[in-house]
Write a sequence for this structure.
């Protein structure tokens, strides 16, 4: 009888990939689409009163967000691919451990990209009140240069959590390895068939215990 705590299998592999898709693709895309929707509603409310310069700049911002959304998907695809063997192989399996460790730098790379290394630079050159507000409003302001938003503290915290995720995979491997090997030995005893060639049987055993 299989050890249920070891899990693994096709269903768990698919579930692991779907979960990674939800975290690394669906959630960011929903957030970006929500932001684009808010911008479009704001532009629609201002209507013809919004200067053409402001409309052009908003269109550039939306185009940049759409391109960013596509890149988020591209960077997330390797994470989703690696998530399948992470769920497919049982706890205590060497292949599950390698899949988990391979996912760590991929997630770190994805996080580094979407946060721009924890420092977000916003170009404020040539932005003025006339760019966004109706001319009838008596407001005036202008920005020059680049605004730097330092989120390095949050970035390093998230990176530490990602590294901790790799440590969890190592601890899981050590904790379940003996149980995994006992499960494999029990399966060999129950389903033993005389191999046609000893060398083939040895190769099969080596593969199954990974």
């Amino acid at each position: 009888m299989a050890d249920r705590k070891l899990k693994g299998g096709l269903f768990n592999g698919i579930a692991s990939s779907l979960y990674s898709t939800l975290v690394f693709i669906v959630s960011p895309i929903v957030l970006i689409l929500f932001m684009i929707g808010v911008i479009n509603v704001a532009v629609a409310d201002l209507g013809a009163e919004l200067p053409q310069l402001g409309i052009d700049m908003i269109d550039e911002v939306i185009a940049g967000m759409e391109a960013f959304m596509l890149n988020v998907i591209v960077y997330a695809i390797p994470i989703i691919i690696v998530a399948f063997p992470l769920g497919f192989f049982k706890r205590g399996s060497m292949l599950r451990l390698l899949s988990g460790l391979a996912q760590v730098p991929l997630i770190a790379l994805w996080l580094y990209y979407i946060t721009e290394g924890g420092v977000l630079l916003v170009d404020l050159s040539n932005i003025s009140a006339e760019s966004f507000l109706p001319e009838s409003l008596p407001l005036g302001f202008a920005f020059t240069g680049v605004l730097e938003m330092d989120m390095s503290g949050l970035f390093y915290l998230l990176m530490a959590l990602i590294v901790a995720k790799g440590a969890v995979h190592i601890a899981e491997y050590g904790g379940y390895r003996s149980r995994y090997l006992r499960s494999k030995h029990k399966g060999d005893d129950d389903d033993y068939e005389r191999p046609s060639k000893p060398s083939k049987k040895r190769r099969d055993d080596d593969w199954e215990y990974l």
Observations:
- The longest helix spans residues 152-190.
- Confidence is low (pLDDT under 50) at residues 128-135, 137-145.
- Residues 4-120 form one domain.
